[in-house]
Amino acid sequence: MPPFIRVSNLTMGWGDVILQRNLTFQVDRGDVFAILGGSGCGKSTLLRYLIGLETPLSGEIVIDGLGRPNLEVGRPPFGVMFQSGALFGSLTVGENIGLSLEQWTPLSHDAIGAIVRAKLRLVGLDGAENKLPSELSGGMKKRAAIARALALEPPLVFLDEPSAGLDPVSAVELDELILTLNQVLGLTVVLVTHELPSIFKIARRCIMLDKQTKSILAEGDPCDLRDNSAEPRVREFFNRLAKRA
Amino acid sequence: MTETRIRPEALLPTAEVELSDAKGEARQVSLRGTLTFAGAADIWSRIRTGTATLKEGDEIDFDVSQAGAIDGGTMALLVHLRGELAARGVRAEFTGAAEPIQALIHLYKGDIDATKRKKRKAESLLAHVGRATVQFFEEVQGVLGFFGSAVLAAFGLLREPRTGNWKAILPTMERSGADAVPIVVLINFLVGFVMGFQGATQLKQFGANLYVADLVGLSVTRELGPLMTAIILCGRSGAAFAAELGSMCVSEEIDALRTMGFGPIRYLVLPRMVALMLVLPLLTLLGDLMGMLGGLVVGISSLGLTFGGYLFETQKAVSMWDVFSGLIKSVVFAMAISLISCQQGFATTGGAEGVGRRTTASVVSILFALIILDAGFTMFFHAFNL
Ligand SMILES: Nc1ncnc2c1ncn2[C@@H]1O[C@H](COP(=O)(O)OP(=O)(O)O)[C@@H](O)[C@H]1O
Ligand SMILES: [Mg+2]
Question: ipTM of the assembly?
Fold first, then answer.
């Protein structure tokens, strides 16, 4: 089976500034794939390229064998949670989640309401349906955004630091949720994260971006990299985080 | 009497600048005592004035061996001064730092090589004008490109009307239209009133009192009604649209919308455009009436005209086309307001400050566009004798 996402020789940047050069990797169907790296090395930006918001300077991105996602036509086959949540401020949490259901499914109003409530329960936000995003805390916003990303049952989700800013208990619950969705529904997950426990627990494969060399520093199973990587900076990354975690 | 205790010299926060003559080596700034942010202003000015005479190639030491403690703010200032000296070609180094102070120096990067920086030359006036001109044409190009995308989105919408954000139109009309009624009424009334008043003083001299109705009626319906109302809408809705879309842009909401398969132009811009294009002609009609009412009040109160006489004269002077041409203008104005404000909103970068900047820019650009369009219309109608 061809990989779900195939990235070859992707170069990201603006004008004369190059952020990352010649990135090549692939994500298989059913994977939980983590993008790691220090702050500002371009993890969120890589997601923006993968979901078709930016045009590569060079290189190729193929999702589901269909090429770069074209956001101008129809509905892309994935859900996205942005780092900031990016909930629509003028809509309630429920409306945020129901929006694409209303647009893309023939479901009735009641049915949409039921799905919205179910998704909110899934992320532990029961009863937040009629709240405005401005009334939620940072962690709640993230969870609402995850619920929105999952609204249309996409086969693929992109999550940008889903558990950052969550309390430890919610963070663990969220990891479990991601893992369950992955195992039960076969959901493919591409996530950016700094949380070492969640990397080891849920990520089956990862790439680590490096700011200095503007390239992929390491690729593979995170546990494997931690123990066996030949690159000292990779081991340092895992161990430094581990000390804090 | 209590005995004045003499504090140890080492605790007095001071900075002494010792500049010896050209062959002397004891050029140094001695920093003593506990240097806190509270006393930093004094140290700052002492070092600055003390080192003002140093020339390129000179060296000076910041001697901190006598300093008990230095806080972060003071260290930041010292490092900055060191950089300033380096920019003038004067080498300054910290000397005699004890362990904790050395760590602080390192933290504030006071131990890295502060090489001579090139000062950026101020832009010449010509270059500035040139850059501003290029920017202006880029803005115009941006609006025209946006207009193209909006037209394409509109055609797309006609093909699949189901995907339109129809339910946003009514609330937008209410916000842009209904809520603007009081100010539209007031301003247009005053414009008609003032114009009537100014005209009356002139027309009285020729005994042509009655013609104030023609003057007010024609200028209000053809020019001032549409223009004034559009300017009000620019200040209200234009600014609001730019700010709304701008803040959606910086909070990645527009990106989120796109990844959910909603074209932002179709979903956000077209409803606003349609709402304004429906609402502005209505408001203009209201403004026309109010302007003429203003003239009527002047006519009756200070020119001795009768109610019926004024109305009859207005009816004679103002044709359907005069009113209709104003309405045509207002539709185009509405398009300009919504296009420019939305385009500026979408072009927002740089957080809350960027939103403010774009909002201001959009109001200015819209006013400019309105005046240009109005002049264009006047010339067009004149050329075709309309
Ligand atoms: N549109 C842009 N133009 C120029 N620089 C950008 C742009 N978007 C992001 N950057 C820069 O790219 C770098 C990487 O950002 P990001 O991908 O958000 O990092 P992170 O890995 O922490 O998620 C940052 O230094 C950011 O300032
Ligand atoms: Mg990021």
Answer: 0.90
